[in-house]
Amino acid sequence: MSDPTLLGLSGSLRRASANRKLIREAARLFGPAEFIEADLELPLYHGDVEDAEGIPAAVQRLADQIAQADAVVISTPEYNKGPSGVLKNALDWVSRTDGKPWADKPVAVMSAAGGRAGGERAQMVLRAFMVPFQPRLLSGPEVHLADCNNQFDEAGHLTSEQYSKTLQTLMDKLRAEIGG
The pTM is what? Predict the structure, then answer.
């Protein structure tokens, strides 16, 4: 049997962001899988542009990656008490594509933020954003990585045993969702 495909979506575009590190660490703890990190550098959603030009190729590629993945991990920073605009824009665009790429898809969400709550509010809002798509959204354990810029070693691994154990449990549950 081949390894499952795990798709990671980071709500931060920065190459070295804590949210990118967190989805990469989640993929490592998930175990053997083909890990694909989605590109969320998409144009802003604009209905007139969609009407005139259709779905951008980068958006369709993202929708296809979601549809083809066995499972998805999403990590969001917290900007002004909610998920990033980058992530919301990607969700809005994908909702405009044909088919239902999120339907019944196993999804784990997490957050990494500089504050002491670790993006808890952003993650709560992200969970609400996902409801219309009807994925199999894991209810927990919740991973809210606080003081995120000080939680990774040079190799990009979590330094806190507590965070590592919680993320491992979440990834074990995600793997179980796909029968692996």
Answer: 0.95
